[in-house]
Amino acid sequence: MIGVQRVPFLYQIGISHYSRESIMSENNINAKGPYYVDQECIACDACVLIAEKHFKIDEEAALAYVCKQPHTPEEISLCQEAMEACPVEAIHNDGQ
Ligand code: SF4
After folding, report:
1. In the chain, where the domains are located
2. Rounded to an integer, what is the distance from CA 20 to the centroid of its chain?
3. 54: which DSSP letter?
4. Å from CA of 63 to ligand 1 middle
């Protein structure tokens, strides 16, 4: 029972929008664009430390997401660096 009360009620009954699967599907919280984080994320914070304007951690889901797509060459470079630094290869660029 440890920690049960810290989990949001809707998550406990399985209909929370915070479930990792739903975040990566219909309720995808990644900003629309080429870069995205998938559900393999372990919330290590590396991408946020490298590109804080582009990645954030959803504390409820313990999952990073792209909050702002890169546009300038400098921003793209930072996101690329974050993608390469991700220890579980959870950051992707589909090139769209
Ligand atoms: S670097 Fe990868 S594993 Fe770490 S928080 Fe970012 S997406 Fe998640």
Report:
1. 29-93
2. 10
3. T
4. 8
